[in-house]
Design brief:
- This protein is an alpha+beta fold.
- It is built from ten helices and ten strands.
- The chain has three domains: 108 residues, Orthogonal Bundle (Butyryl-Coa Dehydrogenase, subunit A, domain 1), CATH 1.10.540.10; 109 residues, Butyryl-CoA Dehydrogenase, subunit A, domain 2, CATH 2.40.110; 146 residues, Butyryl-CoA Dehydrogenase, subunit A, domain 3 (Up-down Bundle).
- A four-stranded mixed sheet has the order 1-4-5-8. Strands 2-3-7-6 form a four-stranded antiparallel sheet, covered by helices on one side. Strands 9-10 form a two-stranded antiparallel ribbon.
- Helix 1 packs antiparallel against helix 2 and helix 7 packs antiparallel against helix 8.
- The longest helix is centred in the middle third of the chain and has 37 residues.
- The structure holds flavin-adenine dinucleotide.
- The site of flavin-adenine dinucleotide (FAD) has 21 residues, from strand 1, strand 3 and helix 10.
Length: 378
């Protein structure tokens, strides 16, 4: 078993690490406070080749694999989980096009995104159903060769700002997942509006929106897969994109550990640096154990995706494990910082606020356990 990254992967990792230190860390707190998406970071990520990295080569993109995406995700997650969500929610919105789109559709929806900075979005959740996604209410009715879309989507990352939004809708509310479709909706479609959701606990540098569709006409050629494929495409997408969430969580945990090490060496109590107390040392050791274990888990899941092997079980474990491990690491990092950890002067307070979302989005960790146990019992 070879754990060595290729030269290209090490270069990619270094590129993402340098980008994080130069472009993300210096502005992360400011954009968190302003609750604003830093568009200049999106543009710079595009310029250096860190945006929409999964666009296939036949559509003019880099065609990077899941492990590559995760290596980027870990570095960006180290810098700011909110900015991570901006960039990675774009890969999330792109993935259904790769999973369910024809080559022609992939070219149509991807090629323009290789020419200028732009985002994708993935719109599955609704005000009344998140985990129970198949119970969606957003309706799609076929009128000639166009779908007419009506309904509301909730909590959509990059929502309203994305050039393309993949919207999941039903053609029959009694029909369950067999009546679902996936439609690619352009930003400027008449009848498509959005409302920004404010005052989030964390990840405030990411844009989260409610999307409203009022008689939005979507050409049939923008439908991914066939009638009834919508839910399947959404689930196949999430089986993959949960893995970068795990990687981002590992990055955040690494930040929590490094900030704790730094502080523990600087802060003195009872006449010596607190790093000399075993209680503090053990917290650092726990963090390191979680980070190493989590990285192995996300890398295995990503490797399975890249080998075109089944990966749903492993991706659910990676997502649930890493997000919980990162939450614990951020929580303990505040403890190591004492009272100073509880205020915004040090980055650890933001880490804890940001990481909570990792246990909720892309399927809550309860839903991950449903997936994991279903695999065990089937
Ligand atoms: C900031 C943010 C960004 C987001 N970005 C996106 C996005 O880009 N696209 C998108 O489509 N969605 C997005 N979401 C939505 C997110 O995926 C949902 O919030 C999540 O899936 C949970 O759905 P819910 O909020 O409706 O909670 P519910 O489904 O109502 O769940 C409430 C609680 O019940 C538990 N529960 C529900 N069903 C079960 C069950 N069967 N077994 C055990 N426990 C269960 C849940 O785990 C949770 O603890 C985002 C959410 C947030 C907050």
């Amino acid at each position: 078993m070879d754990f060595t990254l290729s030269d290209e992967q090490r270069q990619l990792q270094q590129l993402a690490r340098d980008f994080t230190r130069k472009e993300i860390i210096p502005i992360a707190a400011e954009y968190d406070q302003k609750e604003e998406l830093p568009w200049q970071v999106v543009e710079k990520a595009f310029e250096v080749g860190l945006l929409n990295v999964a666009i296939p080569e036949h559509a003019g993109g880099l065609g990077l694999g899941m492990l590559d995406e995760c290596l980027i995700g870990e570095e960006i997650g180290y810098g700011c989980m909110g900015i991570y969500t901006v960039l990675m929610a774009s890969e999330l919105g792109l993935t259904p096009i790769l999973v369910g789109g024809t080559e022609e559709q992939q070219k149509r929806f991807c090629q323009p995104m290789t020419e200028k900075a732009g985002l994708y979005a993935f719109a599955l959740s609704e005000p009344n159903n998140g985990s129970d996604a198949a119970a969606m209410h957003t309706m799609a009715v076929l009128d000639g060769d166009e779908w007419v879309l009506n309904g509301t989507k909730m909590w959509i990352s990059n929502g309203g700002m994305a050039e393309w939004t993949v919207v999941f809708a039903t053609t029959d509310r009694q029909g369950g997942h067999r009546a679902t479709v996936a439609l690619v909706v352009p930003k400027d479609a008449p009848g498509f509006t959005y409302n920004k959701i404010k005052h989030k606990m964390g990840q405030r540098a990411s844009l989260t929106s409610e999307l409203v569709f009022e008689n939005v006409r979507v050409p049939k050629e923008n439908q991914l897969g066939g009638l009834g494929d919508g839910f399947k495409i959404a689930m196949k997408t999430l089986d993959k994109t949960r893995i970068p969430v795990a990687a981002g969580s590992v990055g955040l945990a690494r930040r929590a550990m490094e900030e704790s090490i730094k502080y523990a060496k600087e802060r003195a109590a009872f006449g010596k640096p607190i790093a000399e107390f075993q209680a503090i040392q053990f917290k650092l050791a726990e963090m390191a154990m979680g980070i190493e274990t989590g990285r192995l888990m996300y890398q295995k899941a990503a490797w399975l995706v890249d080998q075109h092997q089944p990966h749903g079980f492993e991706s659910a474990i990676a997502k649930a494990y890493c997000s919980e491990m990162a939450f614990d690491a951020a929580n303990e990092a505040i403890q190591v910082h004492g009272g100073y950890g509880y205020v915004g002067e040090y980055p650890v307070e933001k880490l804890l606020r940001d990481v909570k979302l990792n246990q909720i989005y892309e399927g809550t960790n309860e839903i991950q356990r449903v997936v994991i146990s279903r695999n065990l019992l089937k």
